[in-house]
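Q: I'm building a small set of examples for a reading group on sequence design. Run inverse folding on the following structure and report the sequence directly after it, with nothing in between.
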């Protein structure tokens, strides 16, 4: 599965199951994620690649700023769930 920085993903396993994140960095086995609230760009979440599902509908253009990450995740949630 091809993953690149800026893609939105949903956690499939762990205590953060069903949380939405933005990929900041990709390694061979792990991805480093941020959500702009609990996990900022300076405090990334290390997650196994097999434990995330890519959301192909949206992508974050500026994934170095916490405000831009929060805005992208909020707009996805509003479009997907109509909240």
């Amino acid at each position: 599965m091809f993953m690149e920085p800026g893609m939105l993903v949903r956690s499939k396993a762990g205590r953060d199951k069903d949380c939405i994140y933005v990929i900041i960095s990709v390694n061979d086995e792990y991805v480093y994620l941020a959500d702009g609230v609990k996990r900022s760009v300076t405090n990334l979440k290390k997650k196994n690649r097999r434990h995330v599902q890519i959301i192909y509908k949206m992508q974050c253009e500026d994934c170095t700023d916490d405000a831009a990450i929060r805005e992208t995740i909020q707009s996805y949630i509003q479009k997907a769930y109509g909240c």
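Strands lie at 7-11, 20-26, 30-34, 45-48, 52-59.
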